[in-house]
Design goal:
By secondary structure, the protein is mainly beta. The chain is built from no helices and eleven strands.
């Protein structure tokens, strides 16, 4: 069982930056694939980035490549999402998800554990 707690959301102007954190419980955090997703009102949850623990490979939604960076600190059981050059279309509730598996997914339905979400609002 894994519990996830996100933090770091807020209101920022376009072009600004935020860093989201997701703290996880559990002793095998280093072997979980971690993902960041977002959900805007009236829309389905959307993949943003994933950190695949084998090879520490990362994957991104095309529209955030070059602006967002996912990283993890296994000693702190925490995964981060550094978001730079934010745009109004990045406004959403951001969630982190975890799955104990030797692969990675863009489909949010594949992830077993979720945090409560943190609101990110980007004003124009």
């Amino acid at each position: 069982q894994v519990q996830l707690v996100e933090s770091g959301g807020g209101l920022v102007q376009a072009g600004g930056s935020l860093r989201l954190s997701c703290a996880a419980s559990g002793r095998t955090f280093s072997r979980y694939t971690m993902g960041w997703f977002r959900q805007a009102p009236g829309k389905e949850r959307e993949f943003v980035a994933a950190d695949y623990w084998i090879g520490r490979t990362t994957y991104y939604l095309d529209s955030v490549k070059g602006r967002f960076t996912i990283s993890r600190d296994n000693a702190k059981n925490t995964v981060y999402l550094q978001m730079n050059n934010l745009k109004p279309e990045d406004t959403a509730v951001y969630y982190c998800g975890a799955i104990y598996v030797s692969t990675w997914y863009m489909d949010f339905r594949k992830y077993d554990y979720w945090g409560q979400g943190t609101q990110v609002t980007v004003s124009s």
